[in-house]
Each structure stands twice: as structure tokens, then as C-alpha cells.
Specification:
The chain has helices at residues 17-36, 40-60, 64-72, 74-86, 89-92, 101-107, 112-124, 140-144, 148-166, 168-175, 187-191, 199-205, 207-218, 220-223, 226-231, 256-264, 278-282, 323-334, 358-367, 377-387; strands at 99-100, 129-132, 135-137, 247-250, 272-276, 292-296, 311-315, 343-347, 350-351, 375-376, 389-395, 404-409. The chain is of the alpha/beta class. The chain folds into 4 domains: 17-72; 76-144, Arc Repressor Mutant, subunit A; 148-218, no CATH class; 223-409, Vaccinia Virus protein VP39 (Rossmann fold), CATH 3.40.50. It has a 7-stranded mixed beta sheet, sandwiched between helices. A 3-stranded antiparallel beta sheet has the order 1-3-2. It is globular, with a radius of gyration of 24 Å. The protein starts with 16 loop residues before the first helix and ends with a strand. 35% of the residues are buried. The model has no long low-confidence stretch (mean pLDDT 93). Bound molecules: S-adenosylmethionine. S-adenosylmethionine binds next to loops.
Length: 411
């Protein structure tokens, strides 16, 4: 017990100089690499190293108490940004000019007092620039958030996944702290007080949520779907089977990935297919019918109807499912394949066995919402082996969005 009047509390925060110096040297090194980078890939690598080193410097130079406090305030920050998008603050801000609180209030059907609470909050997070008192301009981030699909991506994460994540611990407290495997009782449906319904079935029953989900997936077109088109040697594939198909984007949503592949490899046009659930394809896609055949397909319940394609591609699909379901999906493809001339491609991430960055680890937690998971290389091998396939190559292994695991049928 301390005596009356004694000051209690944590010791003063003094980050070690040696660690600060080494992180600051890592930042300088990444800047030098960026300055000297000759190719687009070298530049991207240098920027990623810079971002990692500056995050580490920020971590070691923030006191543990402040780190916890900052983290605890994350839902509040999310709420402020969500409101800014919802009220149209970013869309109403003119591009290349600034606007006053009063002007924004009038354009957003709000009042200046309210704008003057939301705008400084989102500016303090880097989502707007506070030019002077009560005057705001765009930043690169707010410019992105004017895009419909970017707004959907935020909506999907905050309005949909957010509700699930706030209830994730309640789910595990009830079901046991174990990887979820029950596809009909996922953390997402549990968070809505429902049971015995699959994640995508639940989305189908809530078309407004599924629309936001599909748009959010299309946001990848803005932020990196190019990687799938450039990281895999598409030119080595020859169309085949009765439909003369080179690649099928299975579970491809609105088709932004297959469109990107065709943009980079025009010879694939006319030899590509897009498959997804009927309701997803029914209200239109991003592909042109001359280039891409659109075929509704339920990959868990039906055998693959398009025979002999060179590649059956699953982009960000198998991560939605536990191993048992993935094995079922893959077995539904075996009879359609033209033996070893066909391959299956998985554009998901490959978790590192150790030292995985948050960009990967959090994606794995995100997948818990639908009882899915991200997989490490060992887990990819094991799951594919059980389904009757063997991994032949992994392209772009470190990319959090666009690794490509290639597999063929086992002998
Ligand atoms: C995470 S999204 C990925 C979409 C797209 N491949 C991409 O990269 O953005 C998963 C996709 O799987 C589709 N899907 C879910 N269950 C399916 C099923 N049983 N059969 C076919 N597609 C399904 C969803 O509609 C959704 O488009």
C-alpha cells in the first residue's frame, strides 16, 4: 500500500533510443530504396517496407497505455468515418477546392454544428484536410471514398462485419474457443440472433446487404485486382473442352477479376467464363457477353458444368469456407477437368508460418464471420491433398491479396 499522497501510476514511458534509431534507419533505408527503384515492383516493395517500418516506429514510440486507448477508440473512429460517408460529406466536397463548414452543412442537409463535430474528427484521422478553421479539403483518402464501391467496402466492413466482430467473443463464449466449422451457424448469423442458416443464404435473404457485399468485392478492382492478372503466367494456358474455355472465374461475383485478366491478356477474350449464384448474376455483371460466358452455378451442390477448361479459378472464395466444404467444392470439379491439362487456381492469401503482418492475420480473423479461414502453405497442401489435388506452384506468395496457389489432380 502506498502512503497517502503518494503518486501512483505506470512508470514514465521512455522508448529505448537504440530501437528508435534502428526503426528510423529502416525508414530511411526504405525511402532510399524507393528513390532508387527502377521498376513498378521495386517501388511497391519499397513503399510496403516504408509502411511497415513507420508502423513499427509509431508502435515503439507510443506508450502502452496510449496504444490500448487508441485501440479502444477504434469503434468511435469507425463510427465517425461511417457517418461522414453516410451524410455525403466526401461526395459534397468540391474537388481541388476547399469548403466551409456552413457550405458543407447546406449541401449535406445537416447543420454547421454537426459538420463541425464530424469533419475535424475525420480530418484528425487523415480522411480530410483541415485547411484552416472550419474549412476543409480533400485528401487522397477522401477522394477514394467518393467512389461508390469504396463506400460499399467501408459499409460492408462497418455495417455488416462490424456487427459480427462486436459479437465474436459472445459467439466463442457460447460455442467454445475453437475454429468455427459449422457453416450454418456462423458468427455472422449468430450476431443477428439467427441459427441454422448459411452465410450466403442469409445474404440472399437480405438483398440490400448482398448488393453492398458485391460492390465491396468490386472495390478490389480499384485497389489491387491487377495483381491476379500480372502475377500468373496466363499466356501458357490454352483454351479447351467443348466450350473452348481458358479460364473460369468460379464464384467470381460481378466479374471484376476476369475482366482484369482479359484487359491484360486480350487473347483470353471469348474463352472465359464467370460463375456465381444465380441471384448474384441476375442483376447484371461487369463483363461483356462477347468476352465472357456467364453461367449461374452453385459450387457446393452441383458438379462443375463447364468441361475441360484450362483453369478453374477461385478468387477469395475458398477462404469463405472450412476445409470440409472446400473439399466438397473441389471434388465437384474433378470430373470436369481434362486430366492434368487443367488446373485449379486459388487467388487467396498464403499465411506466413511466423511473423505474419496484420494485413494477413486480420484477414484470417475476418474469415471467421462465415466459418472460413485463410490458410498457410502447409494448410493449403493438406486441404488440397485430401481433395485429390497437389500444389504445383505458388505465385506472388507475399501479397496479402493476390497470391496464386496452382494445383493439379494427383496422379
Ligand atoms: C468473397 S466473394 C469473392 C468474389 C470474387 N471472386 C472476388 O474476388 O471478389 C465470394 C463469392 O462466392 C460466391 N458464392 C458463395 N457461395 C457460392 C456457391 N455456393 N456457389 C457459387 N458461388 C458462391 C459469392 O456470391 C461471392 O461472389
Amino acid at each position: 500500500m502506498g502512503s497517502v499522497g503518494e503518486t501512483r501510476g505506470p512508470p514514465p514511458f521512455e522508448p529505448p533510443i537504440a530501437v528508435l534509431k534502428s526503426q528510423s534507419a529502416a525508414i530511411q533505408k526504405a525511402i532510399d530504396q524507393y528513390e532508387g527503384a527502377k521498376t513498378k515492383d521495386d517501388k511497391a516493395r519499397a513503399v510496403s517496407a516504408l509502411s511497415q517500418a513507420s508502423t513499427l516506429l509509431s508502435t515503439v514510440s507510443t506508450s502502452p497505455g496510449d496504444t490500448v486507448q487508441r485501440f479502444a477508440f477504434q469503434p468511435v473512429a469507425n463510427g465517425a468515418v461511417r457517418v461522414a460517408v453516410g451524410m455525403g460529406l466526401f461526395n459534397q466536397l468540391p474537388i481541388g477546392k476547399c469548403a466551409t463548414t456552413e457550405e458543407l452543412a447546406s449541401k449535406c442537409n445537416s447543420d454547421p454544428e454537426f459538420v463541425q463535430r464530424i469533419a475535424p474528427a475525420v480530418a484528425s484521422l487523415g480522411f480530410l484536410q483541415e485547411v484552416s478553421e472550419e474549412r476543409y479539403a480533400h485528401t487522397d483518402v477522401s477522394m477514394i471514398l467518393c467512389d461508390d464501391t469504396a463506400q460499399a467496402s467501408l459499409g460492408q466492413m462497418l455495417d455488416n462485419v462490424g456487427v459480427t466482430m462486436m459479437n465474436l467473443n459472445n459467439y466463442y463464449r457460447k460455442h467454445g474457443y475453437k475454429s468455427p466449422k459449422d457453416v450454418n451457424n456462423t458468427p455472422a448469423v449468430f450476431a443477428r440472433g439467427l441459427k441454422d442458416i448459411g452465410y450466403f443464404e442469409w445474404l440472399t435473404q437480405n438483398p440490400e446487404l448482398y448488393t453492398v457485399f458485391n460492390k465491396a468485392m468490386a472495390f478490389h478492382s480499384l485497389t489491387g485486382v491487377e495483381g491476379i492478372a500480372t502475377s500468373y503466367p496466363w499466356e501458357k494456358l490454352q483454351p479447351g473442352g467443348p466450350d473452348s474455355i481458358t479460364v473460369i472465374d468460379v464464384g467470381g461475383g460481378k466479374g471484376h477479376a476476369v475482366s482484369e485478366i482479359i484487359r491484360h491478356h486480350p487473347n483470353i477474350a471469348g474463352h472465359a467464363a464467370l460463375q456465381d449464384l444465380e441471384n448474384v448474376l441476375a442483376d447484371g455483371t461487369l463483363v461483356s457477353p462477347e468476352n465472357v460466358k456467364v453461367v449461374p452455378y452453385h459450387f457446393l451442390d452441383e458438379e462443375q458444368p463447364i468441361k475441360g477448361a484450362a483453369a478453374y479459378m477461385f478468387r477469395h472464395c475458398l477462404c469463405d469456407w472450412p476445409d470440409e466444404s472446400c473439399i466438397k467444392i473441389l471434388k465437384n470439379h474433378i470430373r470436369a477437368m481434362r486430366g492434368y491439362d487443367s488446373r485449379v487456381l486459388f487467388s487467396d492469401l498464403v499465411l506466413s508460418d511466423e511473423g505474419a503482418p496484420a494485413s494477413k492475420t486480420l484477414r484470417d480473423i475476418n474469415m471467421m464471420q462465415c466459418s472460413g479461414k485463410e490458410r498457410s502453405e502447409k494448410q493449403w497442401h493438406a486441404m488440397l491433398d485430401e481433395a485429390g489435388f497437389r500444389v504445383t506452384n505458388i505465385f506472388n506468395r507475399d501479397d496479402p491479396m493476390n497470391s496464386v496457389v496452382e494445383a493439379v489432380l494427383k496422379e
